């Protein structure tokens, strides 16, 4: 049995040379298969041991990450093609993907923004408003780190380390996690915190990063309003919310080839008991996944 990496290389050659697919399409299919490979490696499951239940578990994780149905369907298509190749090459006899159905696609556009639409929203921010820098920082932080809106409004200065480019947030179930911050986000946050010093900060906002003009913490509703207004100014017709930016973060990282496990950790879908335990994980690995695969930050310096 060849190593999984070598099998995927053979599969890619099969797609391009024998099936006549373009190099980009072949690479896209193989990226999806490598995500499955990461999942199998973590669970110590060999490619010949994959069952329908194993694949359902993998696809369930992808779904829970907020990946759009269209991207899920494309991923499943690549995996189905891969297992047909395994049968053709004699690695397996039965196809575990045969009866797995693709997710239903809505006729409406999926609630995932393109990179161009993200850029258009940022460009739509007026440059002469008091809140312009704050709103730019909010967009970049939501899209650049995949935060939930509840995590953004509760984000605290005391839990932000701009030198290490890390933020500790409290997610669902009061579980804390470390979130890597890009150089772009870190620079914006540093500038915003300097501007924030000139606000008449109320006691309830002393440690909160994002405040309104009266020095009080922003609400979830206000974040929704900011996002929707910028989407409208950018001419985006999709239904856009703060969660759309989180979905876009996960989708773009996945399509860029980021490790599935690293995306899970950044989104906070892994059960983490305490921040202290999480601090033992490799911080640089998460930062590298973000900078290597996020379309806004690829190949930027750590």
Descriptive key words:
302 residues; three-stranded antiparallel β-sheet; elongated
Ends apart, CA distance between termini: 39 Å
The succession of helices and strands, N to C, reads HHHHHHHEEEHHHHHH
**Structural class by helix and strand composition:** mainly alpha
- The count of strands amounts to 3
Could you report the average pLDDT, rounded to the nearest whole number?
85
Helix content class: 40-55%
Multimeric state: single chain
**pLDDT < 50 runs, ≥5 residues:** 106-110, 271-282
Structure description:
It is a single chain. With 302 residues, the chain is mostly helical. It contains 13 helices and 3 strands. It has a 3-stranded antiparallel β-sheet with strand order 1-2-3. A hairpin with a 4-residue loop joins strand 1 (160-161) and strand 2.
């Amino acid at each position: 049995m060849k190593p999984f990496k070598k099998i995927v290389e053979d599969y890619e050659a099969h797609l391009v040379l024998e099936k006549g697919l373009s190099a980009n399409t072949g690479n896209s299919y193989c990226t999806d298969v490598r995500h499955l490979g990461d999942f199998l490696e973590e669970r110590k499951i060999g490619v010949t041991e994959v069952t329908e239940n194993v694949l359902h578990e993998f696809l369930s994780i992808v779904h829970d990450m907020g990946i759009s149905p269209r991207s899920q369907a494309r991923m499943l298509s690549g995996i189905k093609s891969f297992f047909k190749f395994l049968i053709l090459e004699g690695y397996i006899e039965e196809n575990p993907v045969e009866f797995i159905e693709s997710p239903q696609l809505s006729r409406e556009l999926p609630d995932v923004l393109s990179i161009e639409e993200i850029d258009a929203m940022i460009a739509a921010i007026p440059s002469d408003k008091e809140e312009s820098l704050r709103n730019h920082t909010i967009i970049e932080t939501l899209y650049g780190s995949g935060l939930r809106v509840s995590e953004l409004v509760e984000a605290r200065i005391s839990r932000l380390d701009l030198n290490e480019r890390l933020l500790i947030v409290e997610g669902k179930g009061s579980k804390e996690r470390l979130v890597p911050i890009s150089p772009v986000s870190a620079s914006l946050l540093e500038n915003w915190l300097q501007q924030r010093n000139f606000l008449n900060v109320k006691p309830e906002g002393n440690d909160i990063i994002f405040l309104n003009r009266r020095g009080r913490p922003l609400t979830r509703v206000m974040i929704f309003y900011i996002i929707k207004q910028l989407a409208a100014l950018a001419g985006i017709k999709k239904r856009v919310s703060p969660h759309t930016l989180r979905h876009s973060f996960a989708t773009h990282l996945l399509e860029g080839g980021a490790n599935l496990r690293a995306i899970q950790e950044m989104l906070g879908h892994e059960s983490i008991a305490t921040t202290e335990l999480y601090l033992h994980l490799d911080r640089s690995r998460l930062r590298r996944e973000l900078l290597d695969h996020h379309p806004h930050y690829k190949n930027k310096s750590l």
